[in-house]
């Protein structure tokens, strides 16, 4: 009778095993609390997994697609200077000056160059339209990367869009909103 499935002996054996398992589990919990094993008892955190770096051209293709769709309210736009530029290095940007500033309704044209180390290094940004801003060289229109926060603190997560949006934000800042500007339509 002891060898038949569901016999009285099996039930008695299981009844004695259950308390032993409960005791062993409680003992293991106490051991883990006093001396946790980080490999066995850590919580999964995906931010600790290094992300694969998106190749330069893939990043620029993403930016091109986004630029063709337009940014937010249309106050900033960008696209390739030449559609045949297979290296996607030379870009045009446009910023419509923010309202309630000396820049209101002005259209500013910029040239953006994404070098071979982009997006690890920031693009070179140059105004074509003349503008008076503290981070723009007044001789050639080049934006000083040390004076524009998005370029000074550049990471590969930034983009052409983030540069244009930051420049527009700086135009509207308290210190820059009333700076005297060159005549509209003048260029560097």
TrEMBL record:
<dbReference type="InterPro" id="IPR000608">
    <property type="entry name" value="UBC"/>
</dbReference>
<dbReference type="InterPro" id="IPR016135">
    <property type="entry name" value="UBQ-conjugating_enzyme/RWD"/>
</dbReference>
<feature type="domain" description="UBC core">
    <location>
        <begin position="55"/>
        <end position="188"/>
    </location>
</feature>
<protein>
    <recommendedName>
        <fullName>UBC core domain-containing protein</fullName>
    </recommendedName>
</protein>
<keyword id="KW-0833">Ubl conjugation pathway</keyword>
<dbReference type="GO" id="GO:0006301">
    <property type="term" value="P:DNA damage tolerance"/>
</dbReference>
<dbReference type="Pfam" id="PF00179">
    <property type="entry name" value="UQ_con"/>
</dbReference>
